[in-house]
Design a protein that fits this description.
- The protein is about 0% helix and about 35% strand.
- The two termini are about 25 Å apart.
- It has a four-stranded antiparallel beta sheet with strand order 1-26-24-23, with no helix packed on it. A four-stranded antiparallel beta sheet has the order 2-3-4-5, with no helix packed on it. A four-stranded antiparallel beta sheet has the order 6-7-8-9, with no helix packed on it.
- It is mostly beta strands.
Length: about 300
């Protein structure tokens, strides 16, 4: 039996370095859109596991945007389109084109997001109309929004999210300070999960609620290289990323703890946008056939 150790390795660079975007998908079918170049971006790129390819632009230039879903059934929403302008715009992606969808109820930035285009969730974030860190969450069916009956236990923004509408996971964020809050969503209510090993904001999550990988982001002070895995009950340490980055532009929300990617983000030094992609391969086992004889 051969068991390669878990590790991060270099992937193909983004065509456009950026932070504060959104993205999801899997190792071989990822996507990323929007962000800060530092000019506001409307660019879309798709990942095939080795390289990024420019795709059709979205209809807004935005940063701190939320989004989720596989490459052929994704959505992106909200964020800043100007120094103090936050939008409610929503766009659906089919793997080729972005089309305008129903506006989200409140213009928000830094939200958590997970699910798919036809069963998506956005949660938390902040809105210029209020000084509060929001606890509200909304469900999306590809055509309209419904307010969730459940509120998050801890309002915040710069939240990492992954999972599906009936089994979602969010971690970290900022509520005036960097947090280690973890919450789980069951399709109607939020419950607290085990707090993450450290406090961070603007990180990334990959995988389902009971098998997720948490990476990147920043604490106070400094960017994080730490990676941790969550099994729905507790956290365990995984190999660190090579280059610390915060406000990650995108990550494989639809990936797993054994197959994930992260791309873009803000570097610590120099303070610049990154085009780097890193890929995570977890512990895998290959069984070699043997010949058995009896007598």
């Amino acid at each position: 039996n051969t068991i390669p150790p878990a590790a991060w390795s270099s992937g193909g660079n983004l065509n456009t370095a950026r932070s504060q975007g959104t993205g999801a998908g899997t190792m071989t079918a990822g996507w990323i859109v929007c962000g800060s170049e530092p000019s506001l971006s409307n660019k879309t790129e798709e990942y095939d596991g080795s390289s990024w390819t420019a795709a059709n632009n979205i209809g807004m230039s935005s940063r701190l945007v939320a989004g989720a879903g596989p490459q052929t059934s994704a959505f992106a929403t909200g964020g800043f389109t100007g120094p103090s302008t936050v939008v409610t715009s929503v766009y659906n992606y089919d793997g080729t084109d972005w089309t305008a969808g129903a506006a989200q109820p409140v213009g928000t930035y830094g939200q958590g997001s997970f699910g798919t285009q036809t069963a998506g969730v956005i949660c938390g974030g902040s809105a210029p109309s209020t000084s509060n860190y929001l606890t509200t969450s909304y469900e999306y069916d590809g055509e309209g929004w419904t307010a969730s009956p459940g509120s998050m236990n801890n309002g915040r923004h710069y939240i990492a999210g992954s999972g599906i509408q009936t089994a979602g996971l969010i971690a970290g964020g900022h509520d005036g300070g960097v947090t280690n809050y973890v919450e789980e969503y069951n399709g109607s209510t939020w419950s607290n999960g085990a707090t993450s090993p450290d406090s961070r904001r603007g990180g990334g999550l990959s995988g389902p609620q009971t098998a997720a990988l948490y990476f990147g982001g920043s604490g106070d002070p400094g960017n994080r290289t730490d990676t941790a895995a969550y099994d729905g009950t507790s956290w365990s340490t995984r190999p660190s990323i090579a280059t610390s980055r915060r406000l990650i532009a995108g990550g494989s929300k639809n990936g797993t703890t054994t197959s994930a990617w992260m791309a873009g983000g803000q570097l610590e030094s120099p303070d610049a946008r990154s085009a780097l992609t890193e890929e995570f391969i977890g512990d895998t086992e290959t069984v070699t056939a043997s010949t058995l004889t009896t007598s």
